[in-house]
């Protein structure tokens, strides 16, 4: 199922559906009235499939793209597979893959998984699907996945207890190696590097970024550094185009946004976005107001900045940024002016809590309170929520 099948009936020599209504078979039908591969049909099926990728059909579509030598569609299907690996690994198409394809897939850095344990389960499900034939491939599969990245409890309670693993000498060695990784951290450098490299190493997920800030002399910085918790190491990224302290940061769709801030002289309305895959910063749409020390959150794929300080006063204004349109829109202001507020998202609402600050002044304890908002596009008003205890 899901494979490309262009069956020809004897009578009229037109392609007909193969087994099951999978996407590639449909393509054969759709394309049949056209002479093969005119630019028009190519563009047509690109749109047709790129829009219809689904965990249940993406492996078939990738195969189809390969047969048609269509690199754009192949890449689109491939990144879809990586992005939705867990769902893909539960599909019939995945279970029917040949060994080479499974090996290739589970070796990819780009797999989007919460933990390596999901890759282990996928590999094991593939073996169990045809235990007789595939059992002997288990050692090869287990050595392609990154067992040391599984939790020790999982290695002990799940991997080691599995009957397929238990009756395979090579597999037990691999589990021991993974356990040693946890037991003797000092020997980690001796392990094959790929087996301890976290997945998705080209995306922001799993890394910590330090963006701008002040040095000890009080100068604003454009320096950006990234910390890899697995390698236990900080590295410098490409610096921002502007020095920014008290800058707002947010991550949306794999891009890291540095928003406004203070460059040492002025509060900024400019915004730039960092792409970790290319290590580059690109200017994007500017905010309507200059602000530093604002609260920044992401809700439903949109960035929200709340309040902040423009150089003269604390602000009550709130703006939202849509990465699709590259535009900042002013939405309902908060009921109070706030700078350096704590903001967070909880169950679809933005909560903003801070001391209210007079322009340069002292905190006014009596006026501290928490607020909540329903920041939908319809811009329902901010509502006062319960105050923090003890304030
Ligand atoms: C701050 O106030 C000064 C003087 O009133 C004005 O010139 C300046 O534009 C103000 N800055 C901002 C960011 O509003
Ligand atoms: C509150 O913030 C708004 C802009 O967000 C500003 O125009 C106004 O002057 C501020 N009010 C005070 C009292 O600082």
From TrEMBL:
Keyword Transmembrane helix: yes
Entry keyword annotation includes Lyase: no
Transmembrane segments: 26-49
Keywords: Kelch repeat, Membrane, Repeat, Transmembrane, Transmembrane helix
Domain (BACK): residue spans on this chain: 58-160
Organism superkingdom: Eukaryota
Protein name per UniProt: Kelch like family member 18
Protein species of origin: Oryctolagus cuniculus (Rabbit)
